[in-house]
Amino acid sequence: MSRAAVPGLPSPHPIGELLPALFADDDFAQRFTAGLDTVLAPVFATLDSLPAYFRPRLAPADFLDWLASWVAVDVDPAWPEEVRRTVVGRAVELHRWRGTRRGLVERLRLVLDAGAEIIDGGGVSWSTAPGAAPLPASSGEVLIRVWPLHGAELDEDQVLSVVTAGCPVHLTCRVEILPGPPGRAED
To answer: CA-based Rg of the chain, rounded to a whole angstrom?
Structure first.
């Protein structure tokens, strides 16, 4: 529901009370200004609560996507409202870690409630032996294993969308969706 469509929203500053005494008892003037009060009440209510519009946890739902555009965050309207609020609220942190292992793992956890393991092919090699032959060049492929954290199955298109948005463009990202966390070898 639009804030302008709240029935009976009172104006904090009724215009009829601000008229000169001559019009205080004039029925037409009071009814006319009451009509203006009805139009202006949502404007006053919005301006009075303006600081809340800039806080993702408090902003009205219809304002949240616009707020997301201000902080350069792509939110999917299909995401639950709480997820969108969290992503917008953590925009600076997510931008700071974008394109990194940590950033991708965190975005998958926030958006899809998914765990992730990222296996990077690496791009640097070294040797302790002088003159040793260099290792073969890295393929530039990153393997991303993703699994649900709390039992619900993951939607492949949503996983690919999040990975595509967070994976550096110069790398090829291969995604595997697992039913649960990968087994770890015992040490």
So the answer is: 28
Angle between helices 101-112 and 156-166 (to 10 degrees): 150
- pLDDT, one tens digit per residue, over 119-177 is 886 666 677 888 888 766 666 788 899 999 987 889 899 999 889 888 887 778 889 99
Q: Coil, helix or strand for 176?
A: strand
Strand order in the sheet with 141-148: 114-120, 141-148, 172-177
Of 70, 71, 68, the closest CA to residue 79 belongs to: 68
Q: Is 118 helix (H, G, I), strand (E, B) or coil?
A: strand
List the Cα angle 110/113/119 in 5-degree steps: 85
| H or E, element range at 117 | strand 114-120
Q: Which tokens belong to 139?
A: 């393929």
Burial 38-53 (b: 16+ CB within 10 A, else e): eebbbeebeeeeeeeb
